[in-house]
Prior knowledge:
- By secondary structure, this protein is mainly α.
- Helix content is 78%, strand content 1%.
- It has a single domain, classed as Farnesyl Diphosphate Synthase (Orthogonal Bundle), CATH 1.10.600.10.
- It has a two-stranded antiparallel sheet.
- Strand 1 (106-107) and strand 2 form a beta hairpin.
- The protein is globular, with a radius of gyration of 21 Å.
- The model has no long low-confidence stretch (mean pLDDT 94).
Amino acid sequence: MPAASALVDLENLRHDVDDALDRHLTRLRDEVAATGPGTTALTDQVSTLLAGGKRLRAAFCYWSFRAHGGASSGAARDAVVRIGAALELFQAAALLHDDVMDASDTRRGRPTAHRVFEARHRERQWSGDADRFGTAAAILLGDLCLVACHREAGAALDALPTDVGRAARDMLDAMTSEVVVGQYLDVLVQAEAWGLDPTADEDRARLVLRAKSARYSVERPLTLGAVLAGASPDRVAAISAAGLPLGEAFQLRDDLLGVFGDPEVTGKPAGDDLREGKRTVLVARTLAAGDDDARLLVTKHLGDARLTDDDVAALRAAITGSGAVAGVEALIDELAAQGLSALATADLDAHGREVLTGLAHAAVDRAA
């Protein structure tokens, strides 16, 4: 099976999605510029963020459409490409807001948007607080991307039969709501007591990852593609059954990379999730199975933004020694097998199934 980048390139998908994004951003840049001076800094930052995307969500949507009988050319295909672009805009909105809430400094090897605007404020010696300016600008930019997502999706769906467009709109609306609520659940989990009941902690961590990431990363793109191809409710349900466990496995891989990933590959500092204090399945399992020293180390240092590289190394050793890494890897394997099995038995076009299977492996078996 080809690498992820080659799979996304099939049938000219990446080029066409990028072209749809460029057209939308050009229109948006003109609209923003007409609103007032200095505002194109917003669209410039969106372009920078979108330039580094893998386009996996767009590919899951497109190849689900093709696997459910969608044509490789024509108006429906054009609409699916634009929905792929809308999914990329949606992800940009989610990342912008997530980076603010996590106080992240980098994204894909570049400064996060709030840090870029904060630096702009300082460089130009504007009045007021630079941190607050950067945060405000990034929040507004995330809102702008969310509006752009729904505008692009709306224009795409207007070209389709009414019943198909309505079903897809309902799904996009539900996706938007569940990610917003998932973000709140993530904030809530950070605030509530943690470490008293490891089983409940893991349940809460999995609830967050499903609502905040798993569904919009894999399940919703797959079901959107099926709906856009006119698939029956049974076939939509079947692809959803594949998408949710694959989405969970995708996010669990992200959680491992957030602690153990290579910064040269992930584009984020080593152990960044530890400094941000992310309460994940990995952390819950460490507290459940680690010895007293490991639990004390995690409880004391998780969420300390001043962690040194040596502190991160000590936390990594405690997490690994507890068996949590091996346990999460086993859970990823279990969920991936469940999703791949569902793909194998779903009523899909053979070539589409093959590409979706490759995309599933690319989402789960990755280093960034």
